Structure of Polymerase nucleotidyl transferase domain-containing protein:
Amino acid sequence: MCDKTQLDIILRQISDYSKELFGDKFKNIILYGSCARGDYDEESDIDIMIMVDMPKDELYKYRKFITDFCADLDLENNVFLSPKLQSLPFFNEWKNTLPFYQNVIKDGVLYA
């Protein structure tokens, strides 16, 4: 796990990369899980949801790019990122139904 300053730098790098990759379809990043709740330990991963305004069935084209970018950040920073590429329309449709999405809304920290 990393400190808040290092986490902010990592999230900024992911945000910048996502803006390059998705353009105006990139909306935000949500930090969720133990890091967002503050109950993480040294072995915790860093759960992030990358919100993109496109249909869910188009996201597969981009997963490898995000995974590879985050893997490089893992190695550079000695952390373990768990990125989830998420369709904004799909999330909005199911956010009041699926418990996972409800937890992301309740505990998540929004990054632009």
User: Anything to note?
Assistant: The CA atoms of residues 55 and 97 lie 19 Å apart. The chain has one domain: 4-111.
